[in-house]
Amino acid sequence: MIIQLEPQSDIPIYTQLTNQIIEGIATGFLQPGHSLPSVRALAADLGVNMHTVNKSYHELEKKGIISIIPKSGAVVRPRKEISQEAGHAERIFAALRPVIAEALVVGLDQQQIEKQLISIIHDLKEIKS
Amino acid sequence: MIIQLEPQSDIPIYTQLTNQIIEGIATGFLQPGHSLPSVRALAADLGVNMHTVNKSYHELEKKGIISIIPKSGAVVRPRKEISQEAGHAERIFAALRPVIAEALVVGLDQQQIEKQLISIIHDLKEIKS
DNA sequence: TGTTTGTTCTATAAAATATAGAACAGTTCT
DNA sequence: AGAACTGTTCTATATTTTATAGAACAAACA
């Protein structure tokens, strides 16, 4: 899986990493049960600090997307386990709201937003590799 | 217009303010041509620092949503002026992508996301006062 | 003519971000 | 059993971001 980090971005490295791992799961590249690289291995691979990767993994765990087994490793949780938990929709829709508000203010209409939504979903749903 | 800031939030105060002003414009509460309060007045009203409000206004200006007239004040830009500018869609859809990816990973399907999208739009489109 | 405006500057403090290195104890593998 | 690897925890440092505070300025405004 190719991960591209931009150190110059205003988005923190650990957030970029978190988002790309989520995308990796969404696309099916990282499947349920899959082990993630160790924090040290991935840090070395990406050229960042171990603690930065660790922070990303814990963010993913907080979101309920992966399980961190102490002294062992991190694993993508089964889809059913993830979806069983409550609070996901609230968190995500709360993040969605300001984006939609801005879209409307800059003149995008419901059709355009829906079209892009579908485009993103189709793009992610294409299982790569 | 009621603005509620949460100092304890992980979202910076100036970002919260920016988002709520955008919502205010989306709902029609703040209409094109409307003057925003002076940075001092709003800061005093909200109980935050002048520079925090100033940063929010400049964020809104950077997004192309308001005009800051030096030594005079800040004004909501006309809708046509805003939508004429390029780059809006790219910026917004880039912000949309990680949210959608997480939604899919958590088990939300296209229908549910679309339903919520429409719900948010309808909620914002209701002109309040 | 005062008042208000955004602007600019210095200053300070706390929190967030990122890196670095070390040590620990449990896990995994040979 | 032993070696390698794992996440965890700790100290440390540096930079950036966030937020506040106060002062001064010149243009705009009433």
Can you give me a brief rundown of this structure?
By secondary structure, chain A is mainly alpha-helical. Chain A has helices at 13-27, 39-46, 50-62, 79-84, 88-105, 110-125; strands spanning 66-69, 73-76.
* Main beta-sheet annotation of chain A: 2 strands, antiparallel
SS content category of chain A: mainly alpha
Radius of gyration of chain A: 16 Å
CATH level 4 superfamily of the largest domain in chain A? Winged helix-like DNA-binding domain superfamily/Winged helix DNA-binding domain
The largest chain-to-chain contact, stated as pair and per-chain residue counts, equals: A-B, 40 and 41 residues
Low-pLDDT runs of 5+ residues of chain A are: none
CATH class of the largest domain in chain A, please?
A: Mainly Alpha
Shape of chain A: globular
Report the mean per-residue pLDDT of chain A as an integer: 96
| Pattern of helices and strands of chain A | HHHEEHHH
- Percent helix of chain A, as a range, is 55-70%
Protein name (chains A, B): GntR family transcriptional regulator
GO molecular function (chains A, B): DNA binding; DNA-binding transcription factor activity
InterPro entries (chains A, B): Tscrpt_reg_HTH_GntR (IPR000524), WH-like_DNA-bd_sf (IPR036388), WH_DNA-bd_sf (IPR036390)
Keywords (chains A, B): DNA-binding, Transcription, Transcription regulation
